[in-house]
Design brief:
The chain is of the alpha/beta class. It has 2 domains: 153 residues, Leucine Dehydrogenase, chain A, domain 1 (Rossmann fold); 148 residues, 3-Layer(aba) Sandwich (Rossmann fold), CATH 3.40.50.720. 31% of the residues lie in helices and 15% in strands. The strands form 2 sheets. The protein has a 5-stranded mixed β-sheet. Strand 1 and strand 2 form a beta hairpin. Helix 1 crosses helix 8, helix 3 runs parallel beside helix 4 and helix 7 packs across helix 8. The chain is globular. The two termini are 25 Å apart.
Length: 318
């Protein structure tokens, strides 16, 4: 997993001739035939891709495209040539088991690695395991590697010793253990509560949780997302004006992806070291950027993407 040079200029290329919407494209969207649903692969033609499957009465395409884009940038932070993906199965709850069976049958040979998301259980995707190209260590190391990417990103902002960390989202034992070993004091509060005085606010209970209207209630110097798109674009700008540093979610959440297609040693220690090195490199570039760390980290990811893609994705996961 290389640490790539993010100092060289980017070549974004011309804007795409077609896209699913103005700032997201071009992407490959496959409309399913046997069930009401679709599969998004962010980088058309990528040989490796992964993403979650969600099921509800109606899953919007824009949200699916955004989730795929988020994963693409997270892979790029780690220097992994892979695309983000996302899938949707539109079905009422009573019809969902049959709809997911039809989904599994139709996507079996698409070459995309899927994980369960909202409305989907792991057992409902079991039949796809035989065609999953990811390494077998991926699931077992998820919490540990997430802790590494999150804590490495936080340490890049400042020493955690004697700092107060508040989370409005449940945290794994691995994350809590690493926070405590760093000397931080951590407590969990009710979901959606943003006004607790603290040094670091960990947020992840809902997409769009922090927007331009409630950003002023945040009483932390650092906001660390543990889910995609917790902070809206306007919320990000508002927090910046208030002097808070927002960790890019595609950086803090990138760790588990290191176990998907490891290039060398697959031990937890080796993967953790690689995640730590890559995330720290991304954060050092991000924190020095005039437009803020999220834009800086995006440019860092795009530098890697430009090493293996003729054209960069049009639209950032912000």
């Amino acid at each position: 997993m290389p640490v790539f040079d993010s100092s060289r200029p980017l070549n974004r290329g011309p804007a795409p001739l077609c896209s699913t919407r103005g700032n997201n494209g071009p992407v490959q969207i496959t409309k399913l035939q046997g069930v009401d649903g679709f599969v998004v692969v962010d980088l058309d033609g990528a040989s490796r891709s992964s993403g979650i499957v969600r099921s509800a009465k109606k899953i919007l395409r824009d949200g699916a495209v955004n989730l795929a884009r988020h994963l693409t940038y997270a892979y790029a932070v780690l220097g992994i040539e892979a695309s983000g993906a996302s899938a949707a199965v539109n079905a009422e709850e009573a019809d969902r088991p049959a709809a997911l069976d039809a989904f599994v049958e139709e996507v079996r040979d698409l070459g995309v690695s899927f994980d369960p998301g909202k409305g989907v259980t792991a057992s409902q995707l079991e039949a796809l395991a035989a065609n999953d190209s990811r390494a077998g260590v991926a699931a077992g190391f998820r919490d540990d590697l997430l802790a590494v990417s999150l804590l490495t990103a936080l340490r890049a902002v400042g020493d955690l010793d004697s700092q107060t960390v508040v989370s409005e989202s449940p945290l794994s034992e691995a994350v809590q253990r690493q926070l405590e070993s760093s000397g931080a004091t951590c407590r969990i509060v009710e979901a959606g509560r943003l006004d607790e005085p603290c040094d670091v606010l960990i947020a992840g209970s809902a997409q769009g949780l922090i927007d331009h209207e409630n950003a002023a209630s945040v009483r932390a110097r650092v906001v660390a997302p543990v889910a995609p798109f917790v902070v809206t674009t306007r919320g990000l700008a508002a927090l910046g004006r208030l002097g808070a540093t927002v960790i890019p979610d595609f950086v803090s959440l990138s760790g588990p992806l290191a176990a998907h297609w490891p290039a060398g040693d697959t031990s937890l220690d080796a993967l953790s070291a690689e995640v730590s090195t890559c995330v720290d490199a991304a954060m050092q570039h991000a924190l020095g950027h005039d437009a803020g760390p999220v834009v800086g980290a995006a440019e860092h990811a795009e530098t890697f993407l430009s090493t293996w893609r003729d054209q960069l994705p049009f639209g950032r996961p912000i």
